[in-house]
Write a structure and sequence with these properties.
The structure is a single chain. By secondary structure, the chain is mostly helical. It has eleven helices and no strands. α4 runs antiparallel to α5 and α6 packs parallel to α9.
Length: 208
């Protein structure tokens, strides 16, 4: 939304008390903005601290969710809720590295339960696996936009991911069928035109 000069001028003429009242009214309606301002203005925890806390949160919640792997619909609902918490963390802290690392961490934590997942019929885990593959593609896309100084850390997550995919035959085949080249699970091997590759894969009806 564009704000006219007249509107901006009218706002600037509010008294400090009126501005404070308006700000608090807006913050009550926008919890995300409220959390973001709190983080930027007075929170003593740094982005790294928040990211570490998120990793522990993910580990605990995936562990709890794993009890429902046999109920794949509910399990995926729980996983999506954890993913939404990662999204909120990124919006609050603008943690671009965390946007990649935390999502890869989430995928790796889910695949810690490969043994349980392996007891499920393929049609039961299909939606979960497609969801994870989409997350992998997104993480690789975002990795390409990160400073190369982060690549060594990202590669650690990707190495673990490749190992876990290699131990999950259904997921491995589904990755291949949806155009995921395992060579890309190394930061330096992600093609420069990766976004176009992903668009091409989706345009052919994959990743659904």
């Amino acid at each position: 939304m564009e704000y006219s000069k007249e509107f901006k001028q009218a706002l600037s003429e509010f008294s400090p008390a009126e501005k404070d009242k308006l700000i608090f009214r807006l913050l009550k309606k926008d919890k995300l903005l409220s959390k973001k301002l709190y983080f930027e203005l007075i929170d003593l925890e740094a982005v790294d601290d928040k990211r570490d806390a998120m990793e522990e949160n993910i580990r605990e919640k995936v562990s709890l969710a794993s009890k429902y792997i046999a109920n794949q619909k509910y399990f995926l609902v729980l996983i999506r809720k954890i993913s939404a918490e990662i999204t909120e963390h990124v919006k609050i802290t603008t943690d671009k590295f965390g946007d990649v690392s935390l999502n890869l961490f989430l995928i790796n934590e889910i695949l810690e339960y490969n043994e349980k997942l392996g007891t499920q019929r393929f049609d039961n885990v299909y939606k979960l696996y497609i969801y994870l593959i989409n997350k992998i593609f997104k993480a690789l896309t975002l990795t390409k936009k990160l400073d190369e100084d982060y690549w060594m850390e990202i590669d650690e997550f990707l190495d673990k991911l490749y190992e876990k995919i290699d131990n999950n035959l259904y997921l491995q085949k589904l990755c291949i069928n949806n155009g995921l080249d395992f060579n890309w699970l190394k930061c330096e091997n992600i093609p420069d035109h990766f976004e176009l590759i992903v668009k091409g894969i989706k345009s052919e009806g994959f990743l659904r």
